[in-house]
TrEMBL record:
Lineage: Bacteria, Pseudomonadati, Pseudomonadota, Alphaproteobacteria, Rhodobacterales
Molecular function terms, GO-annotated: ATP binding; glutamate-tRNA ligase activity; tRNA binding; zinc ion binding
Family (UniProt): Belongs to the class-I aminoacyl-tRNA synthetase family. Glutamate--tRNA ligase type 1 subfamily.
Domain Aminoacyl-tRNA synthetase class I anticodon-binding: 329-464
Organism: Pararhodobacter aggregans
Motif interval(s): 'HIGH' region: 11-21
Motif ('KMSKS' region): 239-243
Matching Gene3D superfamilies: 1.10.10.350, HUPs
Residue ranges of domain Glutamyl/glutaminyl-tRNA synthetase class Ib catalytic in the record: 5-306
Protein known as: Glutamate--tRNA ligase
Annotated PANTHER family: GLUTAMATE--TRNA LIGASE, GLUTAMATE--TRNA LIGASE, MITOCHONDRIAL-RELATED
Amino acid sequence: MNAAVVTRFAPSPTGFLHIGGARTALFNWLYARGRGGKFLLRIEDTDRARSTPEATAAILSGLTWLGLDWDGEAVSQFEQAPRHAEVALEMLARGHAYKCFATQDEIEAFREAARAEGRSTLYQSPWRDADPATHPDLPHVIRLKAPRDGETVIEDAVQGRVVFRNDQLDDMVCLRSDGTPTYMLAVVVDDHDMGVTHVIRGDDHLNNAARQTQVYQAMGWDVPRFAHIPLIHGEDGKKLSKRHGALGVEDYQKMGYPAAAIRNYLARLGWSHGDDEFFSDAQAVEWFDLGGIGKAPARLDLKKLDHLTAQHFTAMDEGAALQELEAYLAATEAAPLTSRQREGVARAMGPLKEKARNFSQILERAHFVLTERPISPDEKAEKSLDAVSRRILGELTPHLQNASWERERLEAIVSDVAATHGLGLGKIAPSLRAALAGRAVSPSVFDMMLVLGRDETLARLSDAAAGG
């Protein structure tokens, strides 16, 4: 039943939320949300030496920014350790696990001898079938008594039928000699206890699925549906690494990408729905299925991300765009907008987000409402304000004084004044832009005039006409 679908995202808190991890979280979120199920979050913090509260906070922050809400509280794997140990002891009592007293030196000696004789180095413990009466009172681990014959089969939703020969799998350690559980056991127990029905994760975990399946079978638990998704590669086709640039979700927020564009882009990394490239969250939730995931690694393509971002800005509600712009300023530790600036950006957001590919570009184009008179043109804009241009701006001002403040009328007045000097609109636009914004990059001059209003526009034009 759809209502029974439960997925999970289980990151290790040893650093930022990796872009590959974010895509895994997104796939799990989409699959659950599209079926009325639950999306759970588990922090796999059993590696106490490397796990940090800061990394956990970064993961939660990254997921929140992406808009991937999880059901219930985030679960700490470390805190479940007593339950993991309990399951190991239960397998021991059932005869599906055994105590192994072999030392590391003995295990290494076994492997050296196996290598010398050309045998498999897969460790076979002499304690597997030992009579408990012969057990010494010494430190020991608890190993899974894995089947030696036959096959363990994974019916993977992405990779298809994957077969592992059981004689190629060792009796994995479930409980260490200090009583702490291993990651491989903890994952299975947590997924079972959390009711996880679908394990959607990177294909670097595919080999783990065989051993984990054996734990499920030893406990008589239902095995979840596995879906192992290919990793993300850089544009050069190699595994994603620092040389490819931004790796963390927070980096993409600081680069000025809106969350909706990142969600859309990540959904398309390795998954497809026909030829659809640009789609909404609602469409992604409705369309997403495991059958649409390809087996080949996906490639990061920032040009495609830029293209998608421009489409998302066009579709984005202006209020939402302003909200995310302010979150971008906070993420980059830039000064927040004053109330005056916020009002100006809100009025201008329509033209500001046209053709923009990130929030940095929106801020650059917003300079005309962020600044105040007197406008100080930058070097490039200053070149458009020569003596002739300033004289034309001076002539233009009285014509605008009593004009109806509508785009068509404003365009007509500016065109007429330009024509009296034998100029086209395109020739006078740079000087108008320099006067109104002090920058060579801005929205159209008429958009700026409408946003600024009559009084502010005339004041800026008069300032520019009088200068120099």
